[in-house]
Write a structure and sequence with these properties.
- The protein is mainly α.
- It has a single domain (about 1-140), classed as Up-down Bundle (Butyryl-CoA Dehydrogenase, subunit A, domain 3).
- About 75% of the residues lie in helices and about 5% in strands.
- It contains 5 helices and 2 strands.
- The protein has helices spanning about 1-35, 45-75, 80-105, 115-125, 130-140, and strands spanning about 35, 40.
- The chain has a two-stranded antiparallel sheet with strand order 1-2.
- Helix 2 packs antiparallel against helix 3.
- It is elongated and about 55 Å long.
- The two termini are about 20 Å apart.
- The relative contact order is 0.19.
Length: about 140
Amino acid sequence: LNQILDLGRPLIGAIQIGIARAALETVLRYSQEREQFGRPIISNQGVSFPLARMATNIDAARLMVWKACALIDQEGDYTKASSMARLFTSRVGQAVTAAAIDLMGGQGYTDENPLNMYFRDAKVCSIVGGTDNVQQMIIASLL
């Protein structure tokens, strides 16, 4: 059973990356189109810097998933890498969707906005395959 869970954790991580990427694309498009004081809001550092952090964290999460998958392909010891990828992608998915909603303000909370669904999906994925605390227990036991 543990081996099956270990193999599935990078998959859950990949799903989280997809959710985070979709949230980033949604808020990026919004910030390029939405104007305040005669210019797109992305021209403000208060908007562009969080977007830069989101993109950086998504890429870092993607690399962690790739590492776990590479270890699985090489039939190496992948348990710790799988749990690390699952833990990090879970946090990135939740943080990116929450930040995207914050940047869109009230529009981010409406049912018509896909960010609402991304936020909920990121939370659900943080439970599947073992909660963050379970992942931390696994990682700590393998240090």
